[in-house]
């Protein structure tokens, strides 16, 4: 009596198992990626939803939080402020504000060059958009992860037109 081994059936079954494993691994990786992105991307879309709780650092502490927005006491609508005053504030804080979309790559390049030359972080390149993202959604910690999240949030927000400046 001879036993005939059906190698074709074994190979097909083996390939089906590999395909199921690959699909499961791909699904897990995609799920992890999107989960990471949900955590990583600051919720900048909330900037147009009304009041926000922002962190106003006092001394060495990061825990002084306050609400800002149209529903809050002392809020002044943009229409009540002179256009010249708005432009003066913007230019004083971010001279190239109207020339970039959230990140100012020219200033980043100058900052990196200057910092390498001096051997320390001597000059930053944060835009107003980055500062808003940091104050509204992130901490003041000086880490590459926080700075990356800030930059990504600024790019997302900067690509949109600011409702306040249209």
Summarize this entry quickly.
The protein is mostly helical and 166 residues long. The protein has helices at 7-40, 83-93, 105-118, 128-137, 144-159; strands spanning 52-55, 65-68.
Commentary on this structure:
With 166 residues, the protein is mainly alpha-helical. It folds into 2 domains: 1-40; 44-165, Biosynthetic peptidoglycan transglycosylase-like (Penicillin binding protein transpeptidase fold). The protein contains 5 helices and 2 strands, in the order H-E-E-H-H-H-H. The protein has helices at residues 7-40, 83-93, 105-118, 128-137, 144-159; strands at 52-55, 65-68. Strands 1-2 form a two-stranded antiparallel sheet. Helix 4 (128-137) packs across helix 5. The protein is extended, with a radius of gyration of 25 Å. The N and C termini lie far apart (87 Å). The model has no long low-confidence stretch (mean pLDDT 79).
Number of strands: 2
The first-level CATH class of the largest domain is given as Mainly Alpha
CATH superfamily of the largest domain: Biosynthetic peptidoglycan transglycosylase-like
Strand content: under 5%
CATH fold label of the largest domain? Penicillin binding protein transpeptidase fold
Low-confidence stretches: none
Count structural domains.
Answer: 2
Count of individual helical segments:
5
Q: How helical, in percent, are the residues?
A: 40-55%
The CATH architecture name of the largest domain reads Orthogonal Bundle
Look at the structure and give the mean pLDDT: 79
- The 3D shape can be described as extended
